[in-house]
Amino acid sequence: MSRFREPQHPDFRRLNSSIGFDRRLWPQDVAQSRAHVRMLADRGILSAEDRDAVLAGLEAVASELEDGRFAFREDDEDIHMAIERRLIEIAGPVGGKLHTARSRNDQVVTDLAMYTRERSVAAREAISRLMRELLARAEDHIDWPLPGYTHLQRAQPVYLAHHLLAYFWMLARDRSRFAFAEREAGRLPLGSGALAGVNFDTDRLQVARELGFAFVAPNSIDAVAGRDFILDYLGAAATCSTHLSRLGAELVLWSSAEFGFCELPDSWSSGSSIMPQKKNPDAAELLRAKAPRVVGHLAAFHGVMHGLPLTYNKDLQEDKEHLFDAADTLELSLAAATGMVARVSFNRERMREAASDELIAATDLADLLVRLGTPFREAHGVVAGLVRKAIDSGRKLSQLTPEELAEQSPTLAEHDPEYREVLSQSSWLESKVSEGGTSLARVGQQLALAKTVLDEAPSA
Ligand code: ARG
How much is the pTM? Predict the structure, then answer.
């Protein structure tokens, strides 16, 4: 029997159906059904015989799905209906008992919570692999100077290890964000029914334990209406992708002839269809370009949730494609970043040369004056005058004469040897002795800390 007098319009069916994308939830759906049916039998809601028949049927359905023999039908609206339909075909009418004390509303969000937990774990593991590579490369290049940039203008020299570790720390925070998303997806919605609970005295904790949920969602209305654990996942994914886009952008710049700081591995580069000499950093460019796509999923799903009355609304079906594509895109981007970082080769000479522009030591010269008692603002002006003189006369700062120094600052002229000393490259790097700074001792401390953090269980 059906309450409807006419069949669904084919276009409505296309609009309404989610089977095209939610079929990937089948492992979670089968797992929750197993746990559900066992609990029903333990509570005396289903007989042991019915339980066994349903479990055997589910086994058969799962094996068809597993090896691609499952025949989806035109009118399978979603994965939940498809599995139940096939279960009844295989096990007979007893299969219809599976949906006792359950609604698709608590069923779908339970699948999604399980899925989100799994993808959060996968993201954490992938991030750890990239962190490990960054750390290894930092150790290999601990004392290779390169310019640090602001406004993409050479600013102050740093060691390559220091620069690479900057990405390590961004990723460490990303990893914590995924640990948070995982925890947020750890409250079992199943047992909430359509929205108000179910008419049976179920044991939700038993189901939670079997499915690896830490808690039972305390409010059935919230449980079927809520998807903020997906927003948490998407938020973590958006931020992480954005970090990867910055890494990608730097690899593009650094591998250009203009910079010449590094060469990307052939296995992560492509050629040009017309220019035989070219080696293009496509993977790094795509790291840049994938980030807005993931951020778009976050923004779009916020739009879906915004102003949505409680509880379940079909709008919520739109959660899936955003979540799935964000997770696929992020994990692929992480794999690409890891592959490139693992095998990129840096050009020590090019970086050193770029970092040896004496003008980069301007702040250090100002600080020398500060140590000699000149107020910083005044020292800034003195050094600006020296820079101007050097540029105008086409010379380096170290080529200015003691007389020229004296014109700007008699104090500086009295400390001529210190002035010359400050202009040697290693002193610009080694003078950055503050905690978190670029001097070798500080970078060494940072490396040691990074090693402990890498193997720490991430905390949300
Ligand atoms: N395919 C649906 C979704 O993804 C499953 C839940 C349907 N529930 C309902 N009351 N129509 O959200």
Answer: 0.93
